[in-house]
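$ fold --in a.seq
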Amino acid sequence: MPSFSRFMEMADDKLHDAKRSIFGSSKAKQMQDTYDTSDFGATDVEPGDFAQGEGALIAADRGLLRPEMITQSPGFERIAHNRDVQSILGKLYAFRQTMASKTLPRATADTQAFKAELAQAVGGTVMSLQTLQEDLAQGAETLNSKTGRYRTVAAICASGAVRTKEQINLCNRILERGLLYAEKGYPGSIDPTSPIKFPEGASMEAALLDPSFAYMATYGEEDFQGVVGSGGINSVKKVTEGGQTRVFKEGGVHLTGETAVQQESITNVVERMEVSPMVGQEGGYERASKREINSSYRDAAVSVVDRLFGLKAAVGTSLARTSEHGGRQASVMDLAEGRTANGILGYFGAEEERFLRAQQEIDKLLLGITLAGKNEEEQAMLLQNPDVGNLQTSASQKLTNLNSDRMMQSAMNMAVLDIIVGHVDRHNGNFMVSEAGDLTGIDNDTAFSLRESFGVLGDTLDERKTSWEERQPIVKKAIRGFRTAEGVDLQNDTSALQAFDTNLPVITSELRTKILSVAPDTLASALRGLVGEPQIQAAVGRLKALQDYVSKMPPEKVKKPDEGFTEAEREAFVYNHEGSRMVGNYLAQMHIVASQSLKSTDPGSLSKVFGHLLQQPYLRDYVEEHSTVLAPISQPYSMAKYMRGDIYKLFEEDPNFDIKQAYESGEFMYYVRHLLEKYVSEHDQGIE
């Protein structure tokens, strides 16, 4: 007798056989072709055409099992009165009534009320689908254990159990589009590029059966327009959807074997997320698979939470699938504006800006000198050198003023989102910065940790200045239940601080209202079917802790509309505890590169520029002529270190100073010669 798992594998074939027997080969074949594409947007059946027979076929094509698929199956009359069959039919009829009774909300002036009703309708449907999935799976197993006459119904139930997941995916698509509808202020259509409208007041059944509204896009190699970028876990590609360029990311490849062992950064992220480990160990570590991470669902769930709270802090994301490999789960995201924070040189104040501009222009000059006269192949080889590659990175970074109210507010919004969703890997490559100063979280598939809170939500700068010994009790509390690799001592592991400390010293009244406007059960409903129940409860716990925290914030910590931030508040918000990456400290993360440069006395690129200058006879001969006096600064490094302040003054005195032009014209060399002559005149004590 075939096992239940074998029936699950055979389910689609059995279902097609049943469909042929009910509706005739030509019509069944026509719909089967559509069904086999797994592209639920590709159908020529009108959504309103729900006659009993054809409606069942449409429902099956969309993955929705309806009672008549069983009652009209071959040989049903011989098993119709069986108690187990009747039980399954009863559950199917009850589910259909539930689907008809749950309706989508209508537009209202209170958008949060609309979102709450939407989440409850969709979340309730998902819970019913999950229950039905369990009932169908159990029913298929029970019927499969009986005689052969039950096999067709068993296969139909097994197929229904498998394809119930499609309904859950479509429910999430409905939720996503409903939240977008509210976000855009209830426009006539959801997307300006299409006439699709949100079906206000429609039942969940009608919405799920409407392929023009509820669908998941399918993408294959022919749709991809080049790789956008790659990270430790994913690579992303450009696609076009509805005339809009979006970003596609597959989300169902296992992370196992040598790759996982070698990529410790991936392992650390997985451990911080506390996902379920795979069976077996490698190298002393329990490994988790990317499939268990469910990266596509986590990406989509973060987008749902972002829209639910109206934070505009994460890139908009939809569930999708691949056309290859049997239709793997994937996600497709909006193309976020700006550049990643890794492409930013962030500064506070004019003095820092001048310093960083000088440093960057010197890097650009050295890069040009290094690549000068080389062909494309030689340049490509040189750029593989880490030092030259770093110069190229520095030359491309954008000087950005971090000292704006808009950027602080945007960073706070993303901090709130990351606290709620439990994001554990928000580094500088995982958020974008727009020209206007808005921060947008990308690469959100490491959200939904099982952490019940993000530690102590400190509101004073002093808490960040204490020693490790003083902070240890706080950190211990933050990492309670924190799963990690065998042998790692979390009491001294700075990653604990990186993952679970946060900095929210002040808050705007608007953001405070948004945090308090979403009930925990609304959040739970919105996440049904996207992440598991443990992840949902962890998110609900973090929301409750956050709501408790902001509701108790003293009035002076809550900024009124249009009220700017004080210097003390800015300092508290951007303070970066050494060795930590606190949730919400995104401005500090961008500033840390600049602050390290400001504190450094290493002349870096300038010394290498001097190395090239000293090869010129005009300077080389002068240094040799005065070698005794110039001995302390005769080498490129020591000379650049001595003259660094004078060189940087050129940028301070003239905001438009172009060191590259000065180098090429010889003016910069003349200036260095002038500084050498000045040194000789000041240090020549009659030494011969």
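$ fold --in b.seq
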Amino acid sequence: MSERPEREIQADLDEELNEEEQLAIDEAVAASDDDTVVPRGRGSFPLVPLREIVIFPEMVAPLKVGRDKSVAAIRAAAAAGGWIALVTQREPEQEEITSVEQLHAMGTLAKIAQVVNLPDGTLRAVVQGQRRLKVKSLDTTGAALMLKGTIVEAPEVTGVEVEALMRSVQAQVETYVTSGAPVPPEAAVAAKNISDPGLLADMTAYTPDMTTEQRQELLETIDVIARLKYVASFLSRQIEILELKGKIQSDVRSEMDKSQREYFLREQLKAIQRELGEEDPQQAEANELREKVEASGMPDEIKARALKELDRMSRIPSASPEVGVIRTYVDWLISMPWNVSTEDRIEIKEAAKVLADDHYGLEKVKERILEYLAVRKLAPQVKSPILCFAGPPGVGKTSLGKSIARAMGRKFVRMSLGGLHDEAEIRGHRRTYIGALPGRIAQGIKQAGTKNPVFMLDEIDKLGADFRGDPSSARGTGGRSRRDARAPDSSLHARGGRAQCGARDRHRDAKVGTRCCREEGPQARG
């Protein structure tokens, strides 16, 4: 036959002890109505220091005692009539009590109802509080701690004030229980049946919401009226906390119910739309834009940004103005010619014929352009320079740019800079601004439909600077293709296609190049 595990034996023993303790507590409560001869005045009693427990008169409680001096005190008290002093120590972690200063000033004289010896050497005792005991001195020389103290008798009080306080406390206890306090519902009935004002006040110490310090303060309050007022204040605050807690829980519950209801309704709406072959308009639009983003051929970095914005758009309510901003932003990204370009057709003879057909004379200018095209044909990997046409108005600067584009087989974009006062017109507005648009460079690329058009920045000498900004600081955005074509547009937050050819137009003669052709027409400078 196998032996039972020690853990099961201990569990059965604990269960039997709990039943015996409950029986002892019931017997002690039943015997509390009997006339018990309680010592009066001063006396010396065995002491059991308590950790974070406060025993009140008329309170029946089980104690587990393990310290040597406490075990000796329980046994000495049981042998001498069962009277024992129970005082809460100031520091719960302290093991040995050596002086009276380590104890609170007020404790309880209790009667031992039952003592059970446990196998591990500890004791379980059921005690019932009888009277308040004021601590005087402590004797630590013997095997058990002996406490000398004075038994405190609370004076009997009567009158309208006491009756009013009792009724107020009884009503508060009932409200406290109905508000969801962690006490049994029978507590309100028990409070109504108590006629002793002191006992009614001490009964509040049973609630778990009262701290050890508050229980000790209540135990040290001798005056019954002051004790009832202290209890009334405590219950009033606890009721207020419970009502606020209930209100918060009710609000949270209603908010959760509302969110769950909306979630279920949305799911039902989606299911109905799927059955009918329909989709949520906003979700359908987001899916359509997502397909266009995937098919646009944009770089991975920009595609990730666009898809992130579409995910955010699908989570935003359709009535939000942010939906329109995101839709416009993604539409611009999709419409950019990320992978569309025209193939250069560099034939010197054909280019010379195009220039001769479009312009009469201007031999040096045509020669400079043909030199540029020849260099491009011999070294196609060379980055595109900027051609600057300087001359009086009407001599053919813009038409030369068109001829270059036609000779190379590229698209032509003319961007007039005359009268611009804000560099954001060139760089693009930030998306944080209302009505933000991409810059004219990005708009020109979209208009051309290819990523390598010939840009003509016309009337560059007519740029104006004022308090709104200096557009000349953004010139490089459209001109220096090697560096500024990699700069992001302020509105699109995306790097545009690299301009592979550029042209600038100036009305006044300014020496900005190293070589030019002197003609009565425009001067072509490299």
